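S.,

Sequence below, as promised.
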Amino acid sequence: MPTVQVTDLKDGDFLLDVREDDEWQAGHAEGALHIPISEFVARYGELTEAAPQDVRVHVICRSGGRSAQVTMYLAQQGIDAANVDGGMQLWAETGRPVVTDDGRPGFVL
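The prediction came back faster than expected:
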């Protein structure tokens, strides 16, 4: 399964956050698309509408387990996807911004 490090992500890379609503509301990466894993199959069309053609989908969760499952599913659908190793925990630890929906500083739940 393709995996990327948080430090390898660049501004503007497409990021899909598959954590649950309470985790998302506590804090997330600005600009990420949020589709909880528990709703992912039903809401798959939202991803295909939002993701630009021929762009890798970087999938993130809290630590990497749930995002790995979604990454495998996307690969089976023919989508170029990569799991973000270490997830939002490592995202925050490396100093990347974590925000709430209204742009205030957030935290990883």
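The radius of gyration is 13 Å.

Coffee later?
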